[in-house]
Amino acid sequence: MKSNQLDRRTFIQGALAAGGFALLPTGVFGATSRNRPTSPNEKINLACVGIGNRGNDDLQAFMATGLVNIVALCDTEIGGKRTLDSLNRCPDAKQFQDFRKMFDQMGKEIDAVCIAVPDHSHFAIAMLAMSLGKHVYVEKPLGQSFYQIELMMAAERKYKVACQMGNQGHSEANYFQFKAWTEAGIIKNVTKITSFMNASRRWHGMVVDGYLKALMPPEYLDWNVWLTTAVDHPYNIKYVNGDWRSWYDFGNGALGDWGAHIFDTAHEFLHLGLPTEVELTHVDGHSPYIFPQESTIAFRFPKRGSMPPVELTWYDGQKNLPPLPPGFGGSIVDPNIPPPTTGKLDTKVLAPGKVIYGEGLTFKGGSHASTLEIINKEAARDLKLPEVMKSPSNHYVNLIRAIRGEEECRSRFAVSGPLSQAMGLGVIAQRLNAKLKFDPVKKQITNNKIANELLKGAPPRKGWEEYYKL
Question: pTM of the predicted model, to two decimals?
Answer without folding.
Answer: 0.91
